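User: Hey, my collaborator sent me this sequence without any context and asked if I could get a structure. I don't really work with proteins. Can you help?
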Amino acid sequence: MALVLNDRVKETTTTTGTGAVALGGAVSKFETFAAGIGNSNTTYYAIVHRTAAEFEIGLGTLDADSSDLTRTTIISSSNSDSAVDFAAGTKDVFCTIPASKLVFEDASSNVNLPNDLVLGSDSAVLKFGADSDTTLTHTDGTGLTLNSTNKLLFRDTGLYINSSTDGQLDIVADSEIQIAATTIDINGAVALNGAITGATNITLTGELDAATLDISGNADIDGTLEADAITVNGTALATVIAGTTITDATNATNSAHVLVTDNENTNEENLIAFVEGATSSTGNVGLEMDGNFAYNPSTGTVSSTIFKGNIDAVDGDFDGTLEADAMTLNGTAITATATLATGISNNNVPKFTSGVADDDFLRVNGTAIEGRSASEVLSDIGASAAAGSSSIVTTGALDTGSITSGFGNIDNGASNITNGGLVKLDVDSDADDVTGDSATGRLTIGAGEDLNLYHGGTNSYVVNDTGLLVLQSAGGVVVNENSANVDFRIESNGDANMFIVDGSANRIGMGVAAPSAPLHIFQAGSNSATTELLLLETGSSTDGSGVKLRMATADTSGILEMADGSGSFDSEFRFKLSDSSQLATPDTKFTIRPQSATFAVDLTCAGDLAVTGSSPYKFGQIIESTSIDTTAISSTSFSDIDLNVSITPRASSSKILVMIDFAYTQDGADNNLANIQILRDSTAIGNHHVGYDNPGGNVGFGCHIQKLDSPGTTSEITYKTQANTQNASSQFRPVGAASIIAIEILA
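Assistant: No problem. I've predicted the 3D structure and written it out in structure-token form, which is a compact way to encode the shape of the chain:
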């Protein structure tokens, strides 16, 4: 079994329901599924009912002799994409390719797939480029292989993965490679040519073996530091620190590396004792201190009788009195009489770079303080005029606050005014009419205030003084979206009800205030022979041709007229009201003048109907169906022969002439007869005997049967055939092509 697609494969079927369909033979100029698809194969199919709104597209499987098509998978259908319960009648079954299964190239030359792309070969190769220089090869059970040294790029040429040489995988990034994982397991050696940086701890369970370890920052070691030798600033430190004893005082010359810790909890002053008179020859280096020098770790206070020399500190915090014989600030001497160029002087008088007038403002400009007038302040903040004047122009946003009465006009130039809340006009207009040019409380649009929107206290108005008022929407225009019980009315010059929609009665009126019909047209004034109440025109110009309806008793040319493109009514169709009781033309009650020798018309008349000319054509329609079913019948019970036709009568009074023509063979016992039965849907309408006194051989016959039926309906009906044998040991087998014809004969 294989999936097979082919062209020009199309057959008919009359099968109903949701099961497999019996194929009824190829349509003219097409071939059968047996020839085009093959027995037991699968194909994509479409089933379309010729008269009913039923269709189905799916994947089907042919049986062993391609007589039936099993509907395996439904892709789309008229039954919400489920299997269709097909009604009686003829259906076309043909091979197709569903749109959802197509691979196509769009307008941008891109190939689109509706689903997965499957390469079925275990050694499939994807090739890229005009010369196929880049390939991706599948190896069964192994994976995918990118050829040669080509790169798998990300974003740009600076980020890629490739193998530049055999045995080596390169991961290259022009900035950073980030690996996010709970655990990173590296089984081999790691060679680092650059620095390791980060804010996260590095934990080693084994030894850190390095020829040289250079720590440029601080080193925080929580455990024990063991070293064969330690150097400080290039000098070997063979030191044992026990308590407060420093065995090698030479290294204590760098006081920054000497830590004295108070291990007592009491608030006391601990002294640092220095050796008096010590020299470098003694091996001790210290500072001579004759007075008291103490440090209190509890308060962080260093105290002494006197400090001499320069005190160089980044910041100084003096809680007490600072006494100095002389002080300088940034190189400038500070005296009791010193003044500042700007700022606050020692006598609390402000100093400025320029004079300041009354009611002016101050601005800090770098390190200076300068005076600014009101206009200069507005310029500094991007405003062009003072608040409270006729207008305010701003380049920024008015995000907070409110605009109150008397503020003046707002001129935003070419910028937008956006608002997340309501734009509210809380005042009614001083007029309730259609002239809004002088109305207060209005919204105006246009340079000349041509469009006005306002509420007059009772009614709301949209007034356009010039041009057209155009309503345009991409999704259409809807009036009365909520289906409220309101009327819609259009006035003309002189008629207040030119067009009206009566919301309560669901009626449309033209020229009438209260329509009394679904469409009510009224034209006021006197009757005229040339006035049309309704005119339907076709053609390239308004020449008066088409369908005219006139309601004038003085009209002598007709009430309902159909004219050709020239506007002539001489050889066309017209009605004239001659009195109150009949519909007539000037000469006879009803006249039809055909423009050609061949003319067909359906007429219903309660009285006498005279038809002149050649004999009327009485056939309503002729429908034929063919079959090549060769299934043998050897049962005394009636069984279907795949020979049927569907027809929808045009009138319930029509008769249907059913004509059957087929050939058959008969074998088995002698004196065997077969019965052919004709059914209208499920009702038998005729039974015919066929057969021959067979002397035990195999004999062929031809069968021709006609039946005239009166179905009495205008709904679709199906005529089908059944057969049986009078002897169960004999066989009745149709052979070759067979046909059934249904002819509607009008009353």
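In plain terms: The chain has a mean pLDDT of 75. You can pass these tokens on to your collaborator as they are.
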